[in-house]
Amino acid sequence: xxxxxxxxxxxxxxxxxxxxxxxxxxxxxxxxxxxxxxxxxxxxxxxxxxxxxxxxxxxxxxxxxxxxxxxxxxxxxxxxxxxxxxxxxxxxxxxxxxxxxxxxxxxxxxxxxxxxxxxxxxxxxxxxxxxxxxxxxxxxxxxxxxxxxxxxxxxxxxxxxxxxxxxxxxxxxxxxxxxxxxxxxxxxxxxxxxxxxxxxxxxxxxxxxxxxxxxxxxxxxxxxxxxxxxxxxxxxxxxxxxxxxxxxxxxxxxxxxxxxxxxxxxxxxxxxxxxxxxxxxxxxxxxxxxxxxxxxxxxxxxxxxxxxxxxxxxxxxxxxxxxxxxxxxxxxxxxxxxxxxxxxxxxxxxxxxxxxxxxxxxxxxxxxxxxxxxxxxxxxxxxxxxxxxxxxxxxxxxxxxxxxxxxxxxxxxxxxxxxxxxxxxxxxxxxxxxxxxxxxxxxxxxxxxxxxxxxxxxxxxxxxxxxxxxxxxxxxxxxxxxxxxxxxxxxxxxxxxxxxxxxxxxxxxxxxxxxxxxxxxxxxxxxxxxxxxxxxxxxxxxxxxxxxxxxxxxxxxxxxxxxxxxxxxxxxxxxxxxxxxxxxxxxxxxxxxxxxxxxxxxxxxxxxxxxxxxxxxxxxxxxxxxxxxxxxxxxxxxxxxxxxxxxxxxxxxxxxxxxxxxxxxxxxxxxxxxxxxxxxxxxxxxxxxxxxxxxxxxxxxxxxxxxxxxxxxxxxxxxxxxxxxxxxxxxxxxxxxxxxxxxxxxxxxxxxxxxxxxxxxxxxxxxxxxxxxxxxxxxxxxxxxxxxxxxxxxxxxxxxxxxxxxxxxxxxxxxxxxxxxxxxxxxxxxxxxxxxxxxxxxxxxxxxxxxxxxxxxxxxxxxxxxxxxxxxxxxxxxxxxxxxxxxxxxxxxxxxxxxxxxxxxxxxxxxxxxxxxxxxxxxxxxxxxxxxxxxxxxxxxxxxxxxxxxxxxxxxxxxxxxxxxxxxxxxxxxxxxxxxxxxxxxxxxxxxxx
Length: 994
Description:
By secondary structure, the chain is α+β, with helices and mostly antiparallel strands. The protein has 34 helices and 30 strands. The strands form five sheets. Strands 14, 15, 18, 19, 20, 21, 22, 23 and 24 form a nine-stranded mixed β-sheet that branches. An eight-stranded mixed β-sheet has the order 12-30-29-28-13-25-27-26, sandwiched between helices. Strands 5, 6, 7, 8, 9, 10 and 11 form a seven-stranded antiparallel β-sheet that branches. Strand 18 (524-528) and strand 19 (536-541) form a beta hairpin. The relative contact order is 0.08. The model is unreliable at 81-102, 215-220 and 984-994 (pLDDT under 50).
């Protein structure tokens, strides 16, 4: 049976139909079916709230209408396969048509024009709307009312991206050279490494794309318009210039439109302007040229949500010509920037190219001068080129970042690209969108002020029975309220209405008041709603003892003028001038904290025959202050950002006083003077001036989407790595331009999610600190891996160059060099990248993005370590030459010595300061233990398996050879560790003695 949830007003009833939820086809079927009943005056069904509002004559009862609706729903289910439903579903699917090229639409300041002039210019009518012929002409001329689709990363594009780094290009070049000189096996193995890197990166990034796309809403939308004097529902894409839109609660505005009728109409524009509180609209023309979007009270914009009242609006812009369409143009103009790690890995690759080319040229020249053949020297140079390229570098970087993405996913952080994890770890400034990111984007009561006490709602529980005036205040807030309240089977309340009135209901529910029983006890008998020149609302209710209850709420100043009494210890007392002054001071204090303040009062009357005279001689109850509350944990998060050395900037569409109050509560300026820049001042600044100022500003207020993009780009111009958080359409251009764009997963818009690098699936902003920690750790660990790869590969170059220059033959062939790099590069290097985070990782300032991944001071240490490794290997090779002569057996000894020495060198690269010889131990890394053990096992395979031994050209070794190999491998580890201890002691001694 259909449930009637509101029947207090005669001739009007509201019903809850659960089957209606997100079913536009059922909505249309119910409205058409009920409209055919002569006793039904009007009907409006809402698929977002599952409610149906029916106005009817006194010849039919509300319970009879419920029975009719029940039969309609049953009939609809029976006819779901009928041609009528198929046609409706077909029209719903047409929303995915591509955008066609259209002519430019008329550009006018519609908000400055009178409504009759707008109607005349667009050749339409307030009563009859457009004709079908005119609508078709406009659609043909200007195109359908759909936005250009934001380009998504195709799977092909993701795959291509895996091959764009310079290290991968170097591997490709080495494989090409090997192929040209007949070394097919070398080329196949090298390209196998490239393929492995591509598979890891592709798999990780496509999985992230799929998850993020799954968050996008797929709801098809229809729109009510007036055409040829009829109210009809059409696909949103068929809305044409000049159409008259019907605006009612729960619908999204289909196109930019000029209001021509507004009855208590409120619209939530937070996704477009960032203004957290729904805006009350009117039809009056505006004055002045530079009126911001947020101040255009006579306009309704595409994508915004009607939260209360009703109205009519004439469409002035559709599709790509709407304000939302302009934002998408900004998105296409915004250019995503490379992250620091991408730049620095390319820089390391470039350095390896120069080193490799220099060494190859040197060896080639030395060989020719010593009389070696050109072909022989060419093969040697190819071997050297292979040695110069760290095959493990792309795979280690890719795999490490992929593991970072997996770790983030466990914390409900979805990362679109591998590099985004690292980039967040190097962020220096984070731009926080206020509405929906710092705050919850919903109103709630935060402070109550009665005659006897002041209550901070978030800090203490409300006990309504602690005082008579507090209990009456909460009751009046529930009764003088248009929000609809229903209760689910699990006991949860469902509150539907404006943000302000919903907040009052939730206040009562949290105080333990049974809202539905209270409304049943005090039945509604009439209401007097707020109007343009009257900021009060009053309702009239039945009571059990005869006199009617008058409940009033509204502007505190207006309400206080019609109040003559107050409550003190449950007794009526006159409202004295001192009482009034105290109320005014409390009101000013609360307004100064950027709260939306309402006054509440009541009275009991016997006679209601004197119009609105019941709104007099009222009893004052108190003030209620509401705000868009700051998210739980936001203040702690801002403090954590500051401790981590990250500057925070708040960007909001709210007024400066509201922004100031929130910034102060969050301590955004770190106990310094809060600096606010308003958009009116921002628009007058040159890009150079903005770049200078933006580094000093804590809050940007009244900001438009293009302003957000300007701010991000100005911060980037100062050399900062910038992250941007946001959830609305208006945030999208800045999200794309920032090095790291962070969007909300639950409350965010599809557009914001589509351009962001990171999506917080559960909207918990504090998970960003986990990402920052992970990003910094990944960078530090990759740096250890790069240090390891450079020192080991440089040792290979030194061995090859020294042996060639001395005429000692070729210590290792190209296949041995490649196998050596596979065994000692990938797994040991990856295990270094999985070291545990340093304890103080979030207490350190972010690194300088211009600082290379390997600093100049590191190169001396790398050269020293490489020299020790190569010297030890050459000593073992010299022993083998003396014993066996130049040939395969001597090469085997050199190859095994260098391979074993490089594997042990992994242990030395775990820390720049801590040595295995010192008493202070660093945490165990099981991945490193497994990597070294596994790599030794793989190395033994090359000796044990005959086909592999043949490819590598390895000869058998004796026990003495094994002892020489072991000593040659262990000696570099001991020397490097003991010198590290000395260096660390020297670096520490001034601090210890000072």
